[in-house]
Specification:
The structure holds three protein chains of three kinds. Chain A is an alpha/beta fold. In chain A, 39% of the residues lie in helices and 12% in strands. Chain A is globular, with a radius of gyration of 21 Å. Chain B is an alpha+beta fold. Chain B has three domains: 8-311, no CATH class; 318-430, no CATH class; 438-494, Arc Repressor Mutant, subunit A, CATH 1.10.10. In chain B, a hairpin with a 2-residue loop joins strand 6 and strand 7. Chain B is built from 16 helices and 15 strands. Chain B has helices spanning 8-14, 65-77, 183-201, 241-260, 306-314, 320-331, 335-343, 347-355, 360-378, 389-400, 406-417, 423-430, 438-451, 453-460, 467-477, 484-494, and strands spanning 15-26, 63-64, 81-82, 89-92, 102-105, 112-121, 124-137, 141-146, 154-160, 167-173, 213-223, 233-236, 268-273, 278-284, 294-295. Helix content of chain C is 32%, strand content 9%. A two-stranded antiparallel sheet of chain C has the order 2-3. In chain C, a hairpin with a 2-residue loop joins strand 2 and strand 3. In chain C, helix 1 (6-15) crosses helix 2 (22-39). Chain C is flat and about 50 Å long. The chains are: A alpha/beta, B alpha+beta, C alpha+beta. The interface between A and C is large, with 71 and 53 residues. Strand 2 of chain B pairs parallel with strand 1 (63-64) of chain C, so a sheet runs across the interface.
Amino acid sequence: MAAALDAGETTSVALTQAHLDRISAVDGAVHAFLHVDAEGALAQAAASDARRSAGQVASPLDGVPIAVKDVLATDGLPTTCGSKILEGWVPPYDATVVRRLRAAGLPILGKTNMDEFAMGSSTEHSAYGPTHNPWDLGRIPGGSGGGSAAAVSAYEAPLALGTDTGGSIRQPAAVTGSVGVKPTYGGVSRYGLVALANSLDQVGPVTRTVLDSAILHELIGGHDPLDSTSIDAPVGGLVAAARQGAQGDLSGVRIGVITELSGDGWQDGVMARFTEAVDALVGAGAEVVEVSCPHFVHALATYYLILPAEASSNLAKFDAMRYGLRVWPEGDAPSAEEVMKATREAGFGDEVKRRIILGTYALSSGYYDAYYGTAQKVRTLISRDFEAAFEQADVLLSPTAPTTAFPLGAKLDDPLAMYLNDLATIPANLAGVPGISVPSGLADEDGLPAGLQILAPALADDRCYRVGAAAEALLAEQWGGLLLDRAPSLDGGADGEAVSA
Amino acid sequence: MTETLLSFDDALAAYDPALGLEVHVELNTASKMFCGCATEFGAEPNTQTCPTCLGLPGAMPVVNATAVESAIRIGLALNCEIAEWCRFARKNYFYPDMPKNFQTSQYDEPIAFDGWTEVEVDGETYRIEIERAHMEEDTGKSTHVGSTGRIHGADYSLVDYNRAGIPLIEIVTKPILGTGEKAPLVARAYVAHLRELLLGLGVSDVRMEQGSLRCDVNLSLAPAGSGTLGTRTETKNVNSLRSVERAVRFEVQRHAAVLSGGGSVLQETRHWHEDTGITTSGREKSDAEDYRYFPEPDLVPVAPSREWVESLRASLPEPPRERRARLQAAWGFSDLEMRDTVGAGALSLVEETIAAGAAPQAARKWWLADLARRANDTGVELSALGVTPAQVAEVQALVDAGSLNDKLARQVFDGLLAGEGTPAEIVAARGLAIVSDEGALGAAVDNAIAANPDVADKIRDGKVAAAGALIGAVMKEMRGQADANRVRELILEKLS
Amino acid sequence: MPEISRDEVAHLADLARIDLTAEELDHLAPQLSVILESVASISGVAGADVPPTSHALPLTNVFRDDVVTPSLTPEQALSGAPEVESQRFSVPRILGDEQ
């Protein structure tokens, strides 16, 4: 699309309007968006066109519209995090990544749906109703960033931003046939990201192609003085790595397949596509080794202690005093404390309450060492597993998620079953390393997309792009086009065509 | 509710007090602890706030380098170890004036720990062990609206977050034992000493009346000679030197009454009431108070290099004790004069007044005899009275030049406090200058002699002491604006 | 690992300022017990010599200079407030003490 803009074949206003039209046509069924800002997006598009005709293009993506997950603060646009407790809240400031999008000239189409406060793997925990998977509207689009992934795979937006705490970018990408990247922790600013678990959260791209993700990543990444955990080093080489990978030559690259991320509970069709993808990479000259990360079996438990603990503290600020919902309980002249309790009871959904209580427990005196303290130690062991594995391999591979998209409602009453969706994605968050999910094909059983996850050492995000782009190119060659070309059209018209942003 | 009290002497005969002091110091950095908002006192409500200090969703903290430097300097001045590596932690509890419902503080890894300092009371030196000094942030300020204006009985509250996020250093002592009947004075002396030390470091305004230095007083009693520690109470927000002394005294007497009556002291927070000089029961400390501390994930650890710490140590100002010794020798003050000067919080004021040209004794006299009384009367700290050392020196220069006498000088201070301008302007506006016109003075002396022939005769007979009556009459006629010594000379000349 | 009782959940909800209904308390206690039993599997995995990880990357000493930057306007600061009076956030009456 950027190329078409450069060539003068289209305008940002036309592109933006086309996506707004698509949203009007299909979002009633998909429900990827919580808020659409047609007026704002078109104004930004017009400004972009004016820049372009004046020869002052702000960035490689100037004029290409984008959707933003509703967990990122947007000045002047509602930001709800999928929660009733923030209904109607309009932040008076922009998240750093949003500021960078605006500076780079990307019109913001709107805010995408998500599990409430990013707690979930299906987007069913949104207080505003679930998002539907464009491949099968009766199924989940993954979570928590199901809105961003569905918007991209349903052609409602060419690009989107997501956030990934335990897989919330990668797992939705896998089950919707799109590309999702969790950058190295600290690689992209978290300032303005409404924190779920601060030590795990990262902002990243959700796109249709690996190259698009690389371009978007370079644009939003890099040091931010407002985020103390931001890495003070330039982000670069990602686009070059993606272009190199797309040539399809991986000679000299060692890929490691993680033993612990396969076996029981992994869907046959998902494993079959994974094996084919690995074979394709080997065919391109990569060397394959099997690596063991023995502590990964504890990653899920570790995650479900660290995350609720941090989240219980982060979500304390939603107390009806300064912003958001205020619920007055019954009774005569209720106190601030009573209003807080009533508001939090009414404003938070079940999953949020569950995790707040769990986190409060894990941090409470007498239990801290047994739970939170132990989890932090196991976190160290998981990082050490990665260090050892990266001695043997340049990148580590696994399926992104154990299964394809499951039917809406299937796991809603079984939190543990829901948590298992993030089995393969969580270790990267615990260790702070980068990961990408690229489509690996459609599972035989259900014809739904599966994902290939590529993990690299911290600060070596370029390796994800190189190997990811290679896998994408090699598989597209086999399929005769991108996987998304095969997605249903939704509006009854011609199937969409996977156009690169 | 009235508390039963035992007399202070009886209390000390039966029990040994253990003191503990927790002092919160607001640093005088230009910006807040974790964001760039200004820290100006008294600004319009909610004009010094941003997403970070308002706790808006998504906002993040970044540590103020100067605040860390100040924390280390305070630690060094209190002979503390400085942590090689420490983290911030979240202290989780809900309160409407705390924007995030957790306070970013330090828990088991304070930046400074295991220090000591010494204070002097009545010529005796007490060593105070410092447990820790850690960094944290202040809360917002609530105004309670309702019939009483106090928190209880308020209909609702209004919150201003300008103060939220201002850097605080909390300095905590270990239990201070062995002070006996001097406990109230030791507590007061410690806080006065901290103020002096912090002022010397230049890290805080230490204005107790503005809340930039706040004190919590812990006290427990144990049976005399038992060597044990009793149950302690924590009296919050004791915010003047005098109150620190009174609060300790009150709690000693209250605890003693409870214990000697066979009761046990409740471990609780107490409120100090400045007006009535008593403490009342606050919140009971219980296990339910669970702050769920954990390391702040949004801030990275602080690891001050030893080079940095040593360079800060090298730049520390002279310690208060050494400074006092040096100044006492230079000024020629007696021990008592020196103690009074320090006790009144006037050491720096006197020093600056002398530096501005006044003689040491004159500087001491104005600050201690006159201005200290005025400060006490209006209930403010001496440094906050509104008279500067330069002004005091200027007034004294006028006295030295014979343009003012002490009585007139006091009227100049009245004018200064009333905001009437500089000393010279006040002298001119109020017409306070001594009349040096010998003609007018001579006429007044002649009038006085004529009006008091008996007295004049006595003086002629050599009873010089009687001149006082004539001097008084002359001064009265001159409305005080004469130099009494010159008047005496003139009288004696005329009657010799 | 100890089961988490209904009373314990009620206490935790109180600490977390959530006014859970009786029904939620009934429901949550067994659910949390199952989750806790599952996560408790990590006890004993790490020896005493393993240092805890609180931050994913080993950064230290990230500071900003003590420089004043523009604040929000009071209108912006108060824009989300449920109630405002005298340029302050109006909140229900506060019980209990300042800490």
